[in-house]
Amino acid sequence: MLTLALAASVPLTMPVAMRGDWDLPSHCKMPGEESDSRAVVRKGEVAFGETVFTPKRIVVAEQTNWTATGEFYDEGETSKGRLNLRLSKDSKTLAYTNSDNRIVRLTRCGKK
Fold first, then answer.
1. In this structure, what DSSP letter does residue 50 have?
2. Could you give the CA distance from residue 95 to residue 104 in angstroms, rounded to a whole number?
3. What tens digit of pLDDT does each residue of 82-102 get?
4. In which domain, by residue range, is 76 found?
5. What's the CA gap between 28 and 45, in Å, rounded?
6. Where are the strands (E) in the chain, listed by range?
């Protein structure tokens, strides 16, 4: 029961250290709408181009390892899924596993 109480108290927000614009190093200078690899981590969602993930339940809420189940919204379609974001120790790389089960590593665009 303690675990359930703790899970219920975790806010549905992304860790502050992960928030920002992330992309492949060669794409950071491109406008966001032109890059198909850009991930924008906001307080309450993550946008991967046209696809937006909104968390509904946090599974792991650490500053460098964040996992949630929620909804992916893309072009009028909503599907349920899971997202795991991992931040490198130096906070310069954000990794996630894409729908093809490949690990994608992005760097922060701009200053932090």
1. T
2. 5
3. 999 999 999 999 999 887 788
4. 2-108
5. 20
6. 20-23, 39-41, 46-48, 51-61, 65-74, 77-87, 93-97, 103-108
Amino acid residing at 16: V
Measured in degrees and rounded to the nearest 5, phi and psi for residue 28 equal -60, -30
Cα 85–24–94 angle (5° rounding)?
20
Calculate the CA dihedral of residues 27, 30, 33, 39 and round it to 10 degrees: 40
pTM to 2 decimal places? 0.82
Confidence at 1, pLDDT banded by 50, 70, 90: very low
State the total domains in the chain: 1
For residue 84, what is the domain's CATH number? 2.40.128
